[in-house]
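call fold(seq) -> tokens
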Amino acid sequence: MLLQQVINGLAQGSVYALIAIGYTMVYGIIGLINFAHGDVYMVGAFLGFYAVNILHLPFFPALFIAMVGSALLGVIIEKIAYKPLRNAPKINLLVMAIGVSILLENGARDNHIFGPDFKAYPAIIKEIRYAITSKASITNLQIILFVVSIILVLILQYIVFWTKTGKAMRATSYDKDAALLMGININNIISVTFAIGSALAGAAGVLVGLVYTTINPYMGIMPGLKAFVAAVLGGIGVLPGAMIGGLLLGLVETLTKAYISTSLYDTVVFGLLILVLLVKPTGLLGKKTNVKV
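ret:
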């Protein structure tokens, strides 16, 4: 039934939206496509997994630990890998991002870290299904996914538009040199941006483990790429665009599986990226900018 597929699509899209926000925040500040971002999402899922299995924590403390750990990882990556190349050509940063991604994926496979095997996420919360109609239902886990995603996005909106740090982030995104002249510590703002984006990705990892029950060291590759597609679709560098792009992409993917083919949904998703780049390269909410030469 269409309503059931819409519910499933919005649940998947909420995950893409949380990851896409990290892409769009980093791009908005330093113009970098951080391809390691999907692997931060993977690390967040494992941090939540171990917080439950080893520390025996309930859902929300495990979520908090995953977000804090992912934020720290994001800052470490920025300081070690990206900061030394900040004034280098963009291609150097792009290659570094790909290298960091491969390092995280293959490092996580080591038996002394996460290990190569798929892991079953613990049933932190017992699943309960609520009937909406005779052919459509929603689970309490999906409701938690929706609610947590909305709360995190609202908190982010508050930080960006109503705090001094958010004002500094917007100023840095608009003009780094002018922001520096106004006394804004650019390095700190970039680190904060990486921390916030990575924390949201870590939260997405825990939510995916909660709803979809299995995690593995390579789980960040495809969601990371699709979240990038979502960011481009909505208008990369535009926060509302990342959210809209993520939800739209989740709907497109789920409806393709349900009504076209379960083997073609990736083709449709990336075909949509090509179409958007051809028709409206700035994305749905993006605007054209003039570049001085």
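The mean pLDDT is 88.
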